[in-house]
Amino acid sequence: MAQRLALQRLLSIPARGPLASHGRAFGTSAGRRSTFNVQDGSDFQDRVVNSPKPVVVDFHAQWCGPCKILGPRLEKLVAKQEGKVLMAKVDIDDHTDLAIEYEVSAVPTVLAMKNGDVVDKFVGIKDEDQLEAFLKKLIGA
């Protein structure tokens, strides 16, 4: 198991390299600023737990097919909120400690966080209407 995880990490580094570094870059569009990749536990604390805005946390994995469908769908809807909510992407293979801390047992798992507290969550794929309702509930719209 450990060897498989190490191999998955090794194989996924080139594909994620530009995206991972983009997570801290300041983009010019609302979509680029509202979604970021979590770099480590300290980054999660600073940008998610201590965020003044609500944050959607997408726990995913590179090898997860449903994650590849849900992630872009959720990013698009978060970008449409024009900065009212942020989206943090957490790769469970890179951040096992965060996955354990937030009791993630399957991917995709999406948490809604406000003021550092988990206020809602779902596991699996949702359609756009369900995701919009999830975001509206989090934002309070």
Question: In short, what is this structure?
Answer:
The chain has 141 residues and is an alpha/beta fold.
Mean pLDDT equals 84
Give the helix proportion (percent range). Answer: 40-55%
Radius of gyration: 14 Å
Please give the largest β-sheet.
Answer: 5 strands, mixed
Describe the structure.
This is Thioredoxin, mitochondrial. Residues 24-140 form the Thioredoxin domain. Belongs to the thioredoxin family. InterPro entries: Thioredoxin, Thioredoxin-like_sf, Thioredoxin_CS, Thioredoxin_domain. One of its GO terms (biological process) is cell redox homeostasis. By secondary structure, this protein is of the alpha/beta class. The chain has a single domain (35-139), classed as Glutaredoxin (3-Layer(aba) Sandwich). 49% of the residues lie in helices and 20% in strands. It is built from six helices and five strands. Strands 1-3-2-4-5 form a five-stranded mixed β-sheet, sandwiched between helices. Helix 4 links the parallel strand 2 (55-60) and strand 3. The longest helix has 21 residues, at 2-22.
